[in-house]
Amino acid sequence: MTDVMKSSPQPTAQESILAPQGEAHSELLRRREIDASCRVPVMTFYASGIFWLLIGTALALLASVKMHWPDFPWAPQYLVEAEWLNFGRVRPAHLNTVIYGWATAAGVGTLIWLMARLCQAKVVGTPILMVAAVFWNVGVLIGTMGILGGHSTSIEWLEIPPYATPLLFLSYAMVAIWTVIMFTQRPPGHVYVSQWYLLGAIFWFPWLYGIVQLLLLGFPVQGSIQGIVNWWFAHNVLGLWFTPIGLAAAYYFIPKVIGKPVYSYYLSALGFWSLALFYSWNGGHHLIGGPLPTWVVTASIVASCMMVIPVLVVALNHHLTMRGKWHLLISSPTLRFIVFGAMMYTAVSLQGISMSLRSLNEVTHFTHYTIGHAHWGMYAFFTMTMFGSMYYIVPRLVDCEWRSASLIKWHFWATFYGILLMLLVLTVGGLWQGFKLNDPEVPFTTVVQSTIPWLIGRSFSGVLITIGHVVFAYHFFLMIMRLGKPAGKPTLFREPVEAEGGVA
Amino acid sequence: MMNRLPTLFMGMLLTFSSAWIGLVVVPWAFFGTLEPVQNPSEMAMPGEMVPPPVTGNIEAGLEVYAANGCVYCHTQQVRPERQGSDIKRGWGTRRTVPRDYIREKRVFLGTMRTGPDLTNVGVRLQDPAWHHQHLYAPRSIYPNSTMPNYAFLYDVREIQGQGSPEAIQDLPPENAPPPGYEIVPTQEARDLVAYLLSLKRNYPLPEVPPDF
Amino acid sequence: MSEEPTKISEVDPRAVDYDESTDIAAIHSAIERERRDPQDGHEPIPLWLMALCMLVLFMGGAYLTAFSGGFSSTTPAAYELTGGVAALMSEGGAAAVTAADRGPVELTPELLATIGERVYSNCASCHQANGLGQPGVNPPLAGSDWVTGSEERLVRVLLHGLQGPITINGTTQNWSGNMVAWASLGDKQVAAVLTYIRQNWGNDSPAIMPETVTRIKEETAGRTAQWTEVELKPYE
Q1: What is the pTM for the complete model shown?
Q2: Which of A125, B139, C130, C151 has the greatest number of beta carbons closer than 10 A?
Q3: What residues contact residue A385 under an 8 Å CB cut-off, 6+ apart?
């Protein structure tokens, strides 16, 4: 395997899409060992991530309902009046539990497994990861309680109060150090594209997080510089942390499941480096019209438009890799979640580019359209990609198969329709709100009233997504309890139509 | 080239630091150390500096504003005349610029307008009693408002003697306290209202000259 | 993980052992059916994509130059949109010329009304851009005899504020809003905004000149309390 990769990256016709038969046994044993060494850290991160996903979903539902029924009279008055359940606290608590609690944990779990598999080495330094997992869980717990208790910083994406952030920073730094250690364990030679993204993510994120803590909470910079630092950070959490992990997963699982090489190494390289260069400049487009000199905003707008290069390149690369294999989406849960996520990545990026243009931003800025955009990226792209990764990874770690194909179906369709409905109502409702806001003849109270039906639609979509999450969490719990199907045949939506072996 | 850790890291460092320098370091160097200026208005007192200092109750109120997440529904920035209807809606007479925010230790530019912009709320709504009633029971003033009530910032207590001059008057029956009781602001509520009343960014600045 | 490894078949056919199991084939099945780890293909980058990238880079550079604001951070130019698109957006480009560039001008009633539209931004959040106010909260300005009638009364309301019930066009009503004092505005700005509201939304009354405002300000010097309707009777 290693030799093949070193000598000739271009697969020859003789090579089987399955692992080469000659080396089959030792190769299988090595994978088995690698997976066994991942079991404890990956499952710890996954399990705690799913725990926070449930908490974050509950907070989201509460915040969503409070937006259109601020005094909802039929509910227990405690929900309306409790200080710690006030909208202004529940909303940031939702954001931080899903960003740091769920998405980061799911991302780190996936990162660990991908690094081990791609480095073809057993996990070393498991204690580092376990300490990181504990620190991180305690950090998110203290942070969430701090936000609900009235200690939020109200800096978007950084609401966790300063007394909890050192724990989180240490945790990220430990994961980063571990990743570098793992990378040195690999056999020399070719580095696969997923690894570039993973290395980028673990290199960029602690730097981002450390700097922004210093510049906003430690020694706050002056005035509206805080705004630009805030959005430089917040946009890069998405662009240089979640996006690289999501793309690493897509770059690994799409070719892995369908058994074809990635279309082009050159496209992969162009996509990676243009993302690194342009995405990092995007933050200023959150402050169009804000108290900043024109050139700062313009620089971010230009960089946002340049994002068309990495986005098209990655989309093209994935599309041409998938070519001829689309029918596998019918059977493979992993592939369906991940391909949906990858398509949503292309869509949300193109939407983001359009929103950075001054003429459209004038309408969509300060409206629910932007909220829809954020969920498009964090949910439809990243979260769905992580679900797909989990469907592939977890059975290999717990040595049993997912219990039920219909539970996976419920999960997929509930979240699929839930998120699409949410994007629809927030996008259309946001445009509606934006046009009314820009018409000074429409009184502000009328604008507020006109958003309410859309916000009720959003709450409904939240119910669908909640159903999906509860189903998934239950299914995951069965896997932890080893109540899945006995190892053997994969749990697929439907029997594969292709003759050449399983797909999951 | 892309198979070695040092070269990979060098590329990642260069791309990332380009943006760090461009969006953080250079802005900080160019407009990160602005000073207050003498108010250029002909109406200004001699020696009146703008923006005015943020101290005492106002600073404490800023913390209450942060703790309760006001920023998720209210912006504090006015876009220029040709972007949106910010100025026409009466949220300010001019756009906001960096110098407007140099006195606050934390700025709340905001990204969402579920509620109106608050850049100049202290200019247009100057009555503390109005703010207290609005925070305690928003729908007693605007029946269609979706603002959460901040009743937890207020105490319901038995009326002693004359009653408190700060007590919220004229509440409609559904929000009114029981007979013999009154609703008075806590210190947090007083601080928050002091902060809101201090939001007046309508003075002229050299960067944005007044009309005449 | 599990303290006492037991064979799968002995306990529950569904349960699986975390540690080494004798049933190698079943345990390895997920790995056995796996495809090989992903490989890179080496197709070239399509030419059209390269061309598109070049075009995007060129357009980005052009936009950056056009909207640079001179790369300044503290001059007025830094806060004006510059470039061709900005001129189109600014209704012929005329509005981009700030008042400071115009120099001193004579205040005609027309100019007062134009400037007053800008000053009215102070009023719009209560009385609304359409001058209709908000029912029960802030009274309307459009068609109100308080606006179109006596300038003595109107200037006083603006300088010191107003409270209590008022009679508009013959109907007496209480308003929960509170008209605050606007003495902080310059005399010219007061005149401008009053002229604007007297000549907009179908109102058609003569302009109020800055000199009138200056005179009334002197006459009422020292007053801090808001007016009531009764007190303003003499100026009706």
Answers
A1: 0.86
A2: C151
A3: A246, A249, A250, A337, A338, A341, A342
Q: Find the helix or strand (DSSP H, E) in which A136 lies.
A: helix A126-146
Q: Pick from A289, A321, A278: which is nearest to B75 by CA?
A: A289
Rounded-to-5 percentages of helix, strand, coil across chain A: 75, 0, 20
ipTM tops the 0.90 cut: yes
Say what the pLDDT of residue A364 is: 96
Which helix H or strand E contains A401, and what residues bound it? strand A400-401
Size of interface A-C (CB pairs under 8 A): 187
In 10 A of CB B42, how many CB atoms?
Answer: 11
CB pairs under 8 A between A and B: 226
Q: What chains are in contact with C, requiring at least 3 Cβ pairs below 8 Å?
A: A, B
Q: What is the DSSP string of A343-369?
A: HHHHHHHHHHHHHTSHHHHHHHTBSHH
Specify whether the CB–CB gap between A423 and A381 falls below 8 A.
no
Q: Which residues pair with C138 in a beta bridge?
A: C134
- The beta-strand segments (E) located in chain B are 37-38, 49-50, 154-158, 181-185
* Nearest C-alpha neighbor of A152 from the set A196, A75, A73, A94: A94
Q: Hey, is the C-beta of B102 within 8 angstroms of any chain C C-beta?
A: no
Count Cβ atoms below 10 Å from residue A500 Cβ, excluding itself.
Answer: 11
Of B208, B197, B203, B209, the closest CA to residue B65 belongs to B197
Interface touch C122/B124, C-beta < 8 Å = yes
Flag whether pLDDT at A3 surpasses 70: no
Are C186 and B42 an interchain contact pair (Cβ–Cβ within 8 Å)? yes
The confidence score (pLDDT) of residue A1 equals 35
Which phi and psi (to 5°) does residue B164 adopt? -80, 140
Length of chain C: 236
Q: What is the pLDDT of residue A88?
A: 95
CA angle A394, A399, A400 (to 5 degrees): 80
Cα distance between residue A367 and residue A435, in whole Å: 10
How far is residue C124's CA from residue C148's CA, in Å, rounded to a whole number?
18
Residues 305-334 of A with CB under 8 A from C: 305-306, 308-309, 312-313, 316, 320-321
What would the pLDDT profile of A86-117 be if each residue is shown by its tens digit?
Answer: 999 999 999 999 999 999 999 999 999 999 99
In chain B, the residue whose alpha carbon lies closest to the alpha carbon of C184 is B43
Q: Could you give the CA distance from residue A432 to residue A120 in angstroms, rounded to a whole number?
A: 52
Q: What is the mean pLDDT of residues A18-35?
A: 72
Indicate if the pLDDT at residue C108 is higher than 90: no
**pLDDT of chain B, 212 residues: tens digit per residue:** 567 888 889 999 999 999 999 999 999 999 999 999 988 776 667 778 889 999 899 999 999 999 999 999 999 999 987 788 898 888 988 889 999 999 999 999 999 999 999 999 998 888 899 999 999 999 998 889 999 999 999 999 999 888 888 999 888 888 899 999 999 999 999 999 999 999 999 888 888 855 54
Lookup result for tokens 């160097």: B29
Alpha carbon of A263: minimum distance to chain B alpha carbons (Å): 18
- Residue B164: in which H helix or E strand, if any? none
Task: Output the six-digit token pair for A104.
Answer: 């980061």
Q: Where are the beta strands (DSSP E) in chain C?
A: 166-168, 171-173
Interface of C with B in 137-196 (CB under 8 A): 137, 176, 178, 180, 184, 186, 188
Contacts of B211 in chain C (CB under 8 A): 99, 115, 118
CA end-to-end span of chain C, whole Å?
Answer: 91
Structure-block tokens of residue A237: 């959490």
The predicted structure's pLDDT at residue A80: 84
Cα–Cα distance for residue pair B212/C183, rounded to 1 Å: 17
